[in-house]
Amino acid sequence: MSVQNVIHRAVDEAEASRYTEMWRSLLPYGLDSDTGGYRRFAWNTADLACRDWFRSEAAARGLEVETDRNGNLWAWWGPKGPGAIVTGSHLDSVPDGGAFDGPLGVVSSFAAVDVLRARGFSPAKPFAVACFSDEEGARFGIACAGSRLMTGALDADKARGLRDLDGVPMAAAMEQAGQDPETLGRDDERLEGIAAYVELHVEQGKALAFTESPVAVASAIWPHSRWRLDFTGEANHAGTTRLEDRHDPMLTYANTVLAARKKAKLGGAVATFGRLVVEPNGTNAIPSRVRAWLDVRAPGEEILAAVTEEIIKAADERAGRDGTVLSTERESHTTIVEFDHVLRNRLAGSLRQTFGAVPVLPTGAGHDAGILAAAVPTAMLYVRNPTGVSHAPGEHADDRDCLAGVTALADVLQELCQ
Ligand SMILES: [Zn+2]
């Protein structure tokens, strides 16, 4: 019998059908029928529906739900208390996001509770399923806002004042949803009560697609910088201005995109321009300014710094040739996160019996587990994503792999909660 069949059988039919039913009830919330993607943004109608879904799944299992000072949800199996083992993820999405990023972790957490109960196991330690608020930052621009507020990495006043595209401040959005924005801020009491946080997440690349393993343990989250590049030139007529008379910032920008690709490839990093504001943005006008945002991620801080420097240098040189001016500003930097080595090894050890030696993988994607790592021991499990597509409707994980993920999470939690 193959390893896959053993894993599949480890979750019995009743638990598997309960798992399927959870997905069936969650999937409609925030689904855009035109794009096939999800639009679950912090405190919007779809997000609130997902929060209600979380409460009802918890209630169906007799778990007591509380909302913390920063809007994160906690479903406790048994009494709260110090030394808690916590698992979970998030339910919000990027614009037109996929179904699995976040929800797979929350659904699998509830399913793991079902599996543990079917095994006759009850935790000897306080245990909670958590759902972190506003992980994607799609509405107010700061990712992992719920966990950043909780650890103090995001200032409460700053958070309250963040505005969405309609000008609605986060404080007002929370208030309207019944969440008191005055209580935001670092939550020492809660952090001190957590012994470990384990987050299961769909893989956001395709490293596992080339292996026999449906699951992996995370090693680290790559460091990550976001820069704003302003290319300033001279607006002029698209029909009458000779090519040699132009100071076209779009040309400088376009060459910078190509340079970023080349420098990232040579340096073993990834670099992306995904956002652009063009002025005056007319079809028949040479732009006066192109404002672009560069996202760079790399396996280490030194590579990240070196690749970024080379991209900016290439942009600057090109600006000199085009008669345009470049100015740059680093808008954010997230340092490398090494997940707790003891916890990571414990996870790998508890998976060995069912899965053999599982891959240990780094990722370029940020997570609440990465933010919480500054305050509590954290670890992550990844479930294979056959196409590697994420943050898009094509994001996918096979049922069989998802159930293997549930088994893996249950095994890990059983080990940690003994
Ligand atoms: Zn996620």
UniProtKB/TrEMBL annotation:
It holds the Pfam family Peptidase_M20. SUPFAM superfamilies: Bacterial exopeptidase dimerisation domain, Zn-dependent exopeptidases. Gene3D superfamilies: 3.30.70.360, Zn peptidases. Keywords: Hydrolase. InterPro entries: Amidase_Cbmase, Bact_exopeptidase_dim_dom, Peptidase_M20. The keyword Hydrolase applies. Belongs to the peptidase M20 family. This is Allantoate amidohydrolase.
